[in-house]
């Protein structure tokens, strides 16, 4: 079986382990068990008819005496491109809009309050090709582009906050960014969060397409909680998660596009660790499928030129501050993951583990200031 055909770790475990042993393995791998949500029959039927996976799980918190529960539902969407990469640009965008409308409708049936799509969801992940045409034509305005208008309509229709990661073109200076547009459930564009860290790893050398972000670590206050968007490569940088948390994020979304040979061993760890370290929920989203391009390209690794970047392995999941996480979506199918969470769990775990209270941030800030100086000398004791 090839890597792109392997559906999921969870299904493999369920197929080969006795129930009692499976419970212990799940406890060690995923922490405290997340209970399955009872999703509406209409949503389950819609997912079956439209050929995408639908899963739902619940994170519980202790019932407090002075604060009522703050239960909300988030939705994570992973999907493959709909049309071939050489189809006309507008046709590709429209086809993906239509596909997303189907999935968002099912999310609304499941009472999802906040939904997040994958990185640059309106296009193939063409940055591996190092070509500019026609890929730059997918870039559009974050405030007035057709994709934002499309998402505004969905947000108003379903009373849902929508996080829409796109390739953004800022017309004034024709600067291009990798940007997540955050749209309120009222349909208002709350703002945008640009990708802070740009990879320079083989095919992930995206610096010729767009710039490092200039929006810092913005947190958005929504009707359903404070959210932030840490785009793709930013998940490899612990301080990136940390700064969103320091600005008050209760949920940090990580829309991504990453392939198996490069990052899969890190995928189950990073967002989960960030949730634990920062006392917040994290949502890791990855696209699925293998995208083929007409022109061959190389990866700077000495291997022969090829027509695809590799298999995007999906496996989207949600992690909680207590170290628990949902099972992942499939490695091979489009999917919608619904997670119900009580945001009170964030403070409860902060009180339990006190990572922030014991953080010694003033000391780190001082030492980091020293470390970035050109004359910095590391503190090393030698015999």
TrEMBL record:
Organism per entry: Salarias fasciatus (Jewelled blenny)
Which residue windows are transmembrane per the record? Answer: none
Q: Which Pfam families match?
A: CN_hydrolase
* Location of the CN hydrolase domain: 72-343
How would you summarize the oligomeric state and partners of this protein?
Homodimer, homotetramer, homooctamer; can also form higher homooligomers.
Supply the name of the protein: Beta-ureidopropionase
Q: What does this protein do?
A: Catalyzes a late step in pyrimidine degradation. Converts N-carbamoyl-beta-alanine (3-ureidopropanoate) into beta-alanine, ammonia and carbon dioxide. Likewise, converts N-carbamoyl-beta-aminoisobutyrate (3-ureidoisobutyrate) into beta-aminoisobutyrate, ammonia and carbon dioxide.
Please tell me one Gene Ontology term that the record gives under cellular component. Answer: cytoplasm
Q: Which family does it belong to?
A: Belongs to the carbon-nitrogen hydrolase superfamily. BUP family.
Q: What is the lineage of its organism?
A: Eukaryota, Metazoa, Chordata, Craniata, Vertebrata
Gene that produces this protein: upb1
Give one GO biological process term: beta-alanine biosynthetic process via 3-ureidopropionate
The keyword Hydrolase is assigned to this record: yes
Q: In which pathway does it act?
A: Amino-acid biosynthesis; beta-alanine biosynthesis
Q: What class of enzyme is it?
A: hydrolase
Q: Where in the cell is it found?
A: Cytoplasm
Q: Which GO-annotated molecular functions does the record name?
A: beta-ureidopropionase activity
